[in-house]
Amino acid sequence: MTARTEPTILVEVAYALPERQWVESVRVPAGSTVADAVRASGVVEAFPELAGVTADYGIWGRGVAGSEPVSAGDRVEIHRPLLHSPRESRRLRAAAKALR
Fold first, then answer.
1. Could you tell me the mean pLDDT of each successive run of 10 residues in the chain, 100 residues long?
2. Whole-model pTM?
């Protein structure tokens, strides 16, 4: 009798800072969630500032919850919080342009 192995899938987990991009391929059991893939990737060990932070996630640029199931080949993205709202960013760009 052979041991039954659980099927796994390969996904990428990505986190980007202005000065650095981190991408890790990880095998997770089929049926895993975004949060499971993030935990398995080791991103929190590489970026300790993420520990205890509630992050927003995406799969290929589409915002998803941590409970969203992942599929083989997915790219899970950890989104950093915005520094300014889009409205505030436009206002700051317009103010800078007016000064030039």
1. 77 93 96 96 91 88 95 95 82 88
2. 0.76
